[in-house]
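Review session, final week

We close the course with one last complete record, chosen because it touches almost every idea we covered. It is Glucose-1-phosphate adenylyltransferase, a protein from Klenkia marina with 390 residues. Go through it on your own first, then we will talk.
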Amino acid sequence: MAQSKILVLVLAGGAGGRLELLTEQRAKPAVPFAGVYRLVDFPLSNCQHAGIADVWVAVQFHPTSLSQHLANGRPWDLDRTTGGLLTLPPFRGTDRGGWATGTADVLWRQADLVRDFDPDALVVVSADAVYKLDYRAVADEHRESGAEVTMVTTEVAADDAARYGIVQVDGDRVTDYAYKPDSPATTTATNEVFVFTPGATLDRLEALAADAGDDGLDDLGSQLLPAQTADGAARAHRFDGYWRDVGTVPAYWQAHMDFLADEPPLDLDDPAWRVSTRGGRHSAARLLPGASVEASLVSGGTRVAGAVHRSVLSPGVVVEAGATVTDSVLLPGARVRAGARVHRAVLDDGVDVGRGAVVGGDGDVTLVGLAARLDDGAEVPAGARHPEQG
């Protein structure tokens, strides 16, 4: 029996404003994670392990940062003569051209291309979460169900539920869908993985676009998913594994802390489901005399002479003698000078913390990025405290 023809559309064009400085100069899916990965590696690796060879990535904000990482798709076995990786930038020349205003608008603008491809199932995913999921298994289950959409769901914290699309479920049937409600009825959220029946969904999307008129379409959760739910055409696939949306700075920091546990929530090197990425050329990490490293992830190309505890060091990070880094995430090329202290912080690429400076504290996570332009470039000046204490 021939495998079903599955198309995966990765929505990678959002502005990512909730990640603040981390997305000032890069696309959200290109944000580094766990030292050597990028956020987009997770959906692409899911496609690789599911044996899905047709993957389209819709880009918009800071597309160069993402394109450089994707290259020809080789790390995820997507460098193919027929099929493989296709990048979809905004375009002009037809009545569907222009800047997309939301995730549903992206799908509407690419509807003709999807129809021409004629997949059996269309899987639409975001690129700002950390998880492992077999998209093919969910797509095959969806096709057998006869539903128009399958929403993959997970449980979220009650105080965080208003950030998501929230559903009520009877068995596997979705009886109610509310997009980012002020008062969520449940803590069962969609985890931004949707499997659509292409023809029926695109027909419905055309009708919704016509009704919207000049206002246009917004996100999938604004019009499309509520309409499918109201017609009894939506079902749920419950996902009980590890899933974390890292679209805010606190969530991004917490996800890194999750992976510093004695037993991380996901084995990123599991031979049966390894997370693939575009590798760089880095030497082995160097732990110099006097270095102390505990419960941390240390990438290749780093140099540590100070103390590092419960932290993630990306390639090229330097922690000088007498410096202390605790409960922090340092992105590529960050440098912590002698005697400096960094605690509960995220340092963006190339940030230089001067001698004796103090970054962070026991309160909210502190983010220091290139866009901050502190004193000389991104440097936190010697002896300074960031954020400043009043």
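Two points worth writing down before the exam:
Residues 372-377 have pLDDT under 50 and may be disordered.
The first strand starts at residue 6 and ends at 12.
Good luck, everyone.
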